[in-house]
Amino acid sequence: MKKLIKNVALAAVAASLFPQALAAQAKVTIGTVNNADMIRMQKLSEVFEKENPDIDLDWVILEENTLRQRLTTDIATQGGQFDVVTIGMYETPIWGAKGWLEKLENLPASYDIDDVFPSVKEGLSVDGTLYALPFYGEGSMTYYRTDLFEKHALTMPQQPSWDQMMDFAKKLHDPDNGVYGMCLRGKAGWGENMALMTTIANAFGARWFDQKWKPELDQKAWKEAMQFYVDLLGQYGPPGASSNGFNENLALFNSGKCAMWVDATVAGSFLTDSSQSVVADKVGFSLAPSQKTRQGASWLWAWGLAIPKTSDAKTAAQKFTLWATSKKYAQLVAETHGVAAMPPGTRQSTYANAEYLEKAPFAKMTLLSMEKADPKKPSMHPVPYVGIQFAAIPEFQSIATQVGKFLSGALAGSMTVEQAAKSSQRATERVMKRARYYR
């Protein structure tokens, strides 16, 4: 009876937020990324549909680059194909400010929005108003094989430098036995190789733009960072590294083929899951590497669920987003997949849970990584933009997508780093001048 009353109350709140009446079998089309957490959400949504027989969920699950392109096109043209979209700290403030998303206000007390980390809420808001509810949050960290480090008498610092990572990779690289010294994102994309590359560039003292918005991709710090990345992954990475993104590297590490990997903190629960990883009990965790500075060396991101203004099923969509980002959903994940699999990086209560901290060996490093990340100071030099692994301007998506292709080309050997840097600078200058950031 209490559960029924709670569901009725939640529906009433949703109806007050969006006055459109719920039609019989309201269809909610959800566009999301094909990572493991989202695929898990799709499977567990059977529970939601049983509790809400008047809502039919239709899933569109796509590779990250494809999803972002499709969602951006649909939202910008007001296509109305989606009722719920999976977007992050880059898109949400831009799209919210343009009036493309529904405001998420007057949430029910049971949702406990004050439990969400302030930095995550801020990243999904415009002027204090939420436009997406956080599904999970992340920083970036260093994963490494503790057994291999012990075998080679190596010690991983809490925060290594990239120079140290190069030295470790050289000693651990053993391709004859199927172990590669370093796995990193090589697949072209502003949210793939450029998310990582930007943090490396930050650590090397680079920045995307000076304070007058002039691009700096042909400057010494950027070229040094690019050359280092190409040398490191080219010499000690797996074959075909230029095709590997987050999912591919996750699979490589889980199969025991990576000695080290620098990537999203969200991977921790999968790397330490013995049903998925053959090295689950041999994984160590450190902060993402620094170099000349620690500023901007680790990114900050959150995937959230937002509702486009063009949705014709807003009430049902709101009900689903409340469910999928709630404490109730986190508990469902804990019950079905173990407490360590709870969505990380969004709720303070998760990190106050002693059982979670015990069962999730990556949890403390995740929290430390996110706490150290400052999107307002991503570089050792002053910048005119906000964002660590991105610059929060509408043009960045197209700019970084193009630069990512040049970087991937340098990694694959189809051009030199010098050529990639010059081509990146020219392409970025054209976009920024056309958008009148500078002359």
What do these coordinates show?
The chain is an alpha+beta fold and 439 residues long. 44% of the residues lie in helices and 12% in strands. The protein folds into two domains: 2-138 and 301-355, Periplasmic binding protein-like II (D-Maltodextrin-Binding Protein, domain 2); 140-298 and 384-434, D-Maltodextrin-Binding Protein, domain 2 (3-Layer(aba) Sandwich), CATH 3.40.190.10. The strands form three sheets. A five-stranded mixed beta sheet has the order 2-1-3-10-6. A three-stranded antiparallel beta sheet has the order 8-7-9. Strand 4 and strand 5 form a beta hairpin. The radius of gyration is 22 Å and the shape is globular. Mean pLDDT is 94; it is low at 1-6 and 19-23.
Key words describing this protein structure:
439 residues; alpha+beta; D-Maltodextrin-Binding Protein, domain 2; 2 domains; three-stranded antiparallel beta sheet; 10 strands; globular
Domain count, please report it.
Answer: 2
Number of helices: 18
Helix content: 40-55%
**Series of H and E elements:** HEHEHEHHEEEEHHHHHEHEEHHHHHHH
* Assembly state of the chains shown: single chain
CATH superfamily of the largest domain: Periplasmic binding protein-like II
Spans of 5+ residues with little confidence (pLDDT < 50)?
1-6, 19-23
Quick one: CATH class of the largest domain?
Alpha Beta
The major pleated sheet works out as: 5 strands, mixed
Radius of gyration: 22 Å
> What would the average pLDDT be, to the nearest integer?
94
